[in-house]
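Limitations
The structure tokens in this dataset are predictions for the assembled complex, not deposited experimental models. Users should treat interface geometry with appropriate caution, especially where small molecules or nucleic acid strands are included. An illustrative entry is reproduced here so readers can see what is and is not provided.
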Amino acid sequence: MSPVPADELGHKPLDGGWGWMVVFGAHISIGFAYSTPKAISIFFNEIQEELGASYSEIAWVSSIMLAVMYAGGPVSSVLVKRFGSRPVVIMGGLMCGVSMVTASFGSSIIYLYLCIGIIGGCGLSFNLNASLTIISKYFLAKRPLANGLAMAGSPVFLCFLAPLNQYLLGTFGWRGSLLILGGLMLNCCVAGALMRPAITSCELSSATQKKVEQRNTDVKGRCRKNARKFLNFSFFKDRGFIIYIIGNVMFIFGAYAPIVFLSAYAISQGVEKYSAAYLLSIMGFVDMFVRPGTGLVANSKWIRPRIQYFFSFAMVFNGTVHLLCPLVKSYTSLVVYAVFSGVGFGMVFALIFECLMDLMGNQRFPSAVGLVTIIECFPMLLGPPVAGLLVDIFGDYKYLFFMCGSVVVTGGLFLFIMNIYHYHMLNKEKAAKDRQQNHNIEIQEHACTSEAEIERTEPEAAEMNRA
Amino acid sequence: MAASWKQLFFQILLLFICCGRINTETTGSTPAPLVPTTPLSTDVKSVVLTGESHTENIELLNPVNLSLECTWTGNPIKLPNITGFWRKDGNEIQNSHLTVQLENNQYNIKQVFSIVSEKDLGNYSCVFGNEVKVDFILAAPQITEVRDKPIVSYVGDFVVIECKMDKTKPMPSTWNWYRDNGTEKVQIMAAAEPGRYEIKNNEWETKLRVHNLTEADRGLYYCGAVYAIGTTMGQVKLKVITFLEPLKPFVTIVGEVIILVAAILLYERSQSKQTDRAAFPGRVENADENSTQTQSEDKGNEDSSSMRQRKI
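Predicted assembly:
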């Protein structure tokens, strides 16, 4: 039902073996990428006191890091296509390590913006993009599962980094903690070392035959041309891509605000401070298991062809859970909300890049993901502040949940309906193409037979002439 | 500040005057603290006790004549008389024993205490019989927002220690900082060492900045919120470490990363060498197999010929 664009060369991905080590490497890499901006917020109180900055000034560090991580997508796409995933991830790991180590010597808030925000954000962006790309190169049949396992890195690392950061803060203070965190982030280089380059259609493999070599040079030329394009705007002509982008933008706009404001909402409902913080850990814990689980489910032969619909279902589920949140007041029901919210969030994030790979195919994925991340930068930065504004204007958290839930549900429904339309149009186009091909074949056959007839008749005519 | 000094002087004067008269206890109901006739405000706090015991927190700012009242209704055995007395910080107040009559099904004790200075603050309990009691905890406003975890800083660096008083509570008249030097709390005078210490007081919060930290600076620091009645303390622990301390785990982690990366890359090298070695005779084998396959259709000796090739 869904068109899985095959590679030009039709080379078969490994789907196992060393691929699982690559998934492990991607898990570490993606884990650091998503959890670091959240985990370093534990240091903010101390840094704030020492550097004399206000809370909003300090919070900018996280926002800049996230923004650069997403905005750096196109740059890292170009680098990945030119050099492959391994050097890019190793470079990213080094940059992250250096950023944290230099930040530990910081004495002004601007310095932190530069070190953690910009350099760290760049490093993370290299990590994210390259890890996703290499999964698409190593897996096809088991790709949803591989994606689910790799994306599970985010909640796993968050659960692991949060208490670790608390301990480091208490033992070494914020400077020592940043130093040690920098060392830990160098483990992304280990993850990069695991990402052995796969034989792709952009490289010449030694055992190809002449005919394939010819095709290879054509493909190689096209590859080089694509690699040089910084932002490949031709994607905007792709109907599937536009649908995906719009749905995703709506999701990202509404997805993060409920998480950011969950503890505040719980405290406003009379829940104690530590129990409110516990809600977020529950969400993260559930997320950890839901992501690989969703990958497994999406891999089944029932769901795989309909994965875009499964993705829109996950989005609608997530949005509905947020819409129901204002109805719950007691702590137990908030825990239930946190669990279901974790499930919804995990489901969407396990599938978010798998669906893009499904739409774009192996070749176009690196540039597509770069474009997607830079576009997603805006809703991600705007979502929580707009939601916060709603809380300030109305003085009630329920409007926040209503807004976020409805935006996400609308996004999911949009994807669902538009995908039905998209596949319908694809089928029509395919049928039209088939008819055209058949027609061409008929003309050719007709031409062949008429030629044969002329050939047959010519000697006869010649004989007749001679005679 | 000046008003309370005046009050204190007045009370000391009265003490000298009354001292001669209050020497012998007249009745058992008069407690030891004197009852001055100075313009101290009077406040009444009463508690009705139904169960076994109760604790009441009372926040005081200024010196006051505090009348504490205990009413007990929960006695199952309605004795006509029971003894009652007062305790301060666990110790029985001298000559505070009373015999309490049962009136309207309840027992009633009342006492007026003069709270003028910090030593008058504490835990006052009225006790009925022997076990049933009400605790009145008299204290100045407590500092709630103070770090419970130690602050960690580095030699040569500076540190900012902060203490905040809850804005819902009354504002302290000033803040003081003290350092524990092992035996007692010594007040930190910022004026004496301007390069080292900097104190910034700001109504409900105070910040102490210590520059050029050395290992000797580690220990307990106290911020004191000064009220007319006394000073409440908040405690913060400061740890000073050298930069070598986090450097050790950092170097270990970097070493681990280098070892792992080298191991992975070496493993990959050795694996690819193995596949190359296997591939080279394999390629010859391939070509031969192709040629033999075309011939073997006639010969029918495919297996033996390919086996022959593999032996090479």
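Some entries come with short summary sentences. For this one: Chain A has 15 helices and no strands.
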